[in-house]
Amino acid sequence: MRNTERLILSVLMAFGIFGISIIYAGTVAAEDVSTDQRMEDAAFSEDLFDEYEQAHSATQIVADPIYYFNKAMFTFNDYFYFYGLKPVTQGYKMVVPTPVRIGIKNFFNNLTCPVRFINNILQGKIESAEREFTAFCVNSTIGVLGIYNYAQNHMDIHLEDEDLGQTLGVWGMGNGFYLVLPVLGPTTLRDGVGSIGDLFITPTTYVTPWQLKWSLRGANLINSTSFRIDDYEALKNAAIDPYIALRNAYIQNRSAKIDK
Amino acid sequence: MMLGLISSIIVGLVPTAFSKVLAATDDSEQKAIQARIALESTVNEVLAIIQDEALIANPEKQERLLYDKAFEIFDFNTFSMLSLGRKYREFSPAQRKEFISLFSKMISNTYFPKLAGQDVSNISISYNDVQPLTPRKGIYRTDIATDLIHNETRVAIVYRMIQKKNPGWKIYDIKIEGVSMAANYREQFKQDLSLTPEKIIARLKGKVEK
Predict the structure, then answer these.
(1) What share of chain B is helix, strand, coil (3-state, %, to 5)?
(2) So what's the ipTM on this one?
């Protein structure tokens, strides 16, 4: 969910700014193309198509042998979003001001430091691991339990998402196949297995009693959703085939993370 | 003797070839920097328009100004072409025109209303390195990597730009957190082999009119 969350937010940000150009481009630019230009584009386009084919074919294609299961889960998640998560989050967002929501987001993000730290080590990214360690120390103390992201705001320390799925990818393991989980959303066999491994080094896993543990998980889900409310809808509306759009976005995003 | 000749030719050619490669890289790099300047100034102007108090009071004027600014920088023709991939060839010139118009409307209908009322005061954008792509058929292109921080969340956005004859550099693809928009659409159009140009246009029409 976290990966797709950032993704969807970002889609909104970029298209928010440049989406506006598109109305205009559609009405004006379409008339503007002279025959000359189209000829030039046609010669040029073959190269561009090749380039995209080469750049994306290896990383973009994922096997989807359990398509019907995945599609059913996708539909379930869609209902879950519109009838559960979205109304709850809207209410939450109305009551809780943005700075508080950012604080909560930072708190949970600081808490998952062990996951990123250990996976950095497993991938041999020693400098990133050092950054994680520094950020954790600073944010947990000066930043009061991680609520304030002092490391990012004052020390220019930016953390990258790391998880076991990425580590396995770096080690050369392929995606396996595409998998959509209820509530958790898109993943793959590799990344799903990775998430289970990561649970063991996620502090919230060890919180007792179980009521508190699940409350924390729920709070994290609703709080993080509050930053991207409606974005899923936008992505869905702008898609020709929402299922494939999300699948492809997930795979592209993951392969970029593994390459980093 | 023969060997000596060949080696002297090679020795003579290498520096020439090398300097040419160097010159080419230099050229691409410099052009890419122009692209970055164009991108940066347009983005700044767009942000300024969104934040302008006087313009917020006059939404119609604000919208018009935003269109103008954004249109200067976005190459929707190339974006459409890449989104369709080779399917683009199956489209007649009239269908291409219609596709571009509908495709742009669908995307803008979805995303444009969301920009209104966005609080952009806590957005910061940093422009990282330019990565020139190999020029093809004398056309220069480049990737411009940026980081956008909003609500303390950092998002990597790469703008892929192309040098147009007139009026200059334009964006033709946006890669957000590693996800290329054009490639994402291409996968969607590619997946269903039964999607003829007529069907695609009909589907877009349905979405736009909804």
Answers:
(1) 60, 25, 15
(2) 0.81
